[in-house]
Amino acid sequence: AFGKQTQSCASAPKLNRKFHNSIAMKALVFHAPGKVSVDTVPDPTIQKPDDVILRVTSTAICGSDLHIYNGFLPQTRPMTLGHEFMGIVEETGSGVTKLQRGDRVVVPFPIACGACFFCQHDLPGHCEHSNPEKYGPEGGLLDEKGGALFGYTDLYGGYDGGQAQFVRVPYANNGPRKVQSDFADEQLLFL
Questions:
Q1: Considering the entire predicted model, what is its pTM?
Q2: 99-112, pLDDT tens digit by residue?
């Protein structure tokens, strides 16, 4: 991780989101090399049965974020950055069996299904299912990347990251890890 800078989002609104049709949140959005801003963006939504929506309580800036910021990794559309985050589960999809609303979790950088060959062999960064548009074994310059990563360009799945008040976490039965409440976010975020 790049330093120990955390942004507490604990003051993020605690909404019963199911009854709010048009909610907006704040997020750190990449627009172009050297240009990021805190923008008002739509809240994430449950898109698949095994998704959760997480209210982010802490997030961090990583040196990998600088690769995007400096233009070393191409990104042509605005995207919420951030792959080091944790928070409280606010909503669960109908297929989520390992988490429930109110659970406190830390979320790993790779997005992994938990069922493919690579996930079954403890290689979640190579998940065959989380990055279907750009996945491939050769690792080409602009194609054939590994599994998806939060907030790390369209080359790695195009999933918005956790430098936001809320974030959609796919494959929630596999990725997020429940944490005990007797630890501060800062003690857990950099694990």
A1: 0.86
A2: 999 999 999 999 99
